[in-house]
User: Which sequence fits this backbone?
């Protein structure tokens, strides 16, 4: 059973930084892509960033490119999202997601965490 547990959310002022963590368990994640999504109240869920567990190759939504960095520590089974230069529009619940590469290539992620709230104040 795959489990993803996010942590690290909180309240920060615009321009500040947060690092989110996603503790992954339940299987080896070779052949998986790990990702972060976010959803603001009243808005659709948006892709933020993703990384191949084995080879890396991170990629990002245009809205966060240059400000956010996704990484993973394979030994700790943990995925991170370092968020810098935060803006009020980054306010959302951030979700960790994972799925086999073949599925994520089509935008489908099979496993999701419960989310962690990030609030950026002006």
Assistant:
């Amino acid at each position: 059973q795959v489990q993803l547990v996010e942590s690290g959310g909180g309240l920060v002022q615009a321009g500040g930084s947060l690092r989110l963590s996603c503790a992954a368990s339940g299987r080896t994640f070779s052949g998986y892509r790990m990702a972060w999504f976010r959803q603001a109240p009243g808005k659709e869920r948006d892709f933020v960033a993703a990384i191949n567990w084995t080879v890396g190759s991170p990629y990002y939504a245009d809205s966060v490119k240059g400000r956010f960095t996704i990484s993973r520590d394979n030994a700790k089974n943990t995925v991170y999202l370092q968020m810098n230069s935060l803006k009020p529009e980054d306010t959302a619940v951030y979700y960790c997601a994972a799925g086999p590469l073949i599925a994520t290539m089509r935008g489908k992620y099979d496993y999701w965490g419960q989310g962690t709230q990030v609030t950026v104040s002006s």
Remarks:
- The chain has a mean pLDDT of 97.
- The first helix runs from residue 101 to 104.
- The longest strand covers residues 92-100.
- Helices lie at 101-104.
